[in-house]
Each structure stands twice: as structure tokens, then as C-alpha cells.
Amino acid sequence: MMPTTAPALRGMRLVFFSALVLASWFSVAVAAEADTTKPIEIYTDTAGGYKYLGCFNETMGIALTDGSRSLSNGKNEVKIGGMTVQVCQQFCKEGEKPFKYAGLEFASECWCAQTLNPIADQFADSACDLPCDGNKTQACGGSLKLTVYMISGASSVQIGGVMWVAALFGTAVTFIPMLLDMI
């Protein structure tokens, strides 16, 4: 009797072992998928010399305009697979004079400029919904949207025809509109 049951036990062991291997592989695959689906966040560390300004639309191609980009007359760089907020900020600081603005678009593009186009509209942060190619947890703009940072030494910015002035509330810096008729 022993010889007839041993092959059956071996077969059950093989099925059980295969099921364990499959379950382990499935668990690893699910864990790996979970790690890549972390929500993207706005990078707010100011150690690089820039502070987050907001999510703005790309202005090129808007009817009845000169077609200028939101961040134009500066420089740009594309780093497919390697763009992060820190990489872009460093790129915009390099040179004789650091650029006032650093903006990221389409996950791998970095744009640097001294001015932000006044027709650029600010959107909710969630509109800049593409993760950076080099760090999937950081927001790097979106489709025709830029995650824009301003150099920390700047105290005012003009957006959409309104001058905004930096104000310090406790430890937080925020921008408030400046009424030009009060000057």
C-alpha cells in the first residue's frame, strides 16, 4: 500500500509548493505595484533656494496672444528619466545670474525665466498631476501645466496683471495682492 500512496503525496506536495510560489509571486507583484502608485506631492523644501509658487497653465498657443510661453526668454532642459524638482532648480540657478523662476512641465521638462507671463493663470495644485520622471513622488507639471517655483530672494511677483507681495505669517510665507492705488 505504501508504494501507491507515495506518488499521490508527492503530487499534492508539488501542487501545494506551486500554490505557495504563485502566492508569493502575486504578493511581490502587488507590493511592487503599490509602491509605484504613491500619490504625487508638491515639493516644498526651500533648501534649493526656491519656494513653490503654484501650478500655472502654459500660455503658448492662446488665441490673440504673441504665443509666448509662461516661462520664456530663459533656458530649458529635458531630462527623460532623470528630471526632479531639485535637478530643475539647480539648472535654473547655474550661470552668471540665477533665474527668478523654475518651472517643470510634462514630467521631464525644466523651464527657467526671469519673468512669469502675465496671462498665465494659476490652477489648483492638483492640475499639475504628472510625476517627475526622476522621482515619481514629486509633481512635475502636467499637460500644458507648469509646477512653478520662485527664487527665495524674490519678494514680489506679477501674475495675471496683479502684483503680489510676499508676507511672512509666523513661519509661513504667503503672497497677498498689492493694491497699486494705495502706493
From TrEMBL:
Endpoints of the signal sequence: 1-31
Gene Ontology cellular-component annotations: plasma membrane
Key words of the record: Glycoprotein, Membrane, Signal, Transmembrane, Transmembrane helix
WSC domain location: 49-152
Subcellular localization, as worded in the UniProt entry: Membrane
Protein topology in the membrane: Single-pass membrane protein
Superkingdom of the source species: Eukaryota
Record SMART domains: WSC
Ranges annotated as spanning the membrane: 161-180
Entry annotated with the keyword DNA damage: no
Protein name, UniProt field: WSC domain-containing protein
UniProt organism field: Apodospora peruviana
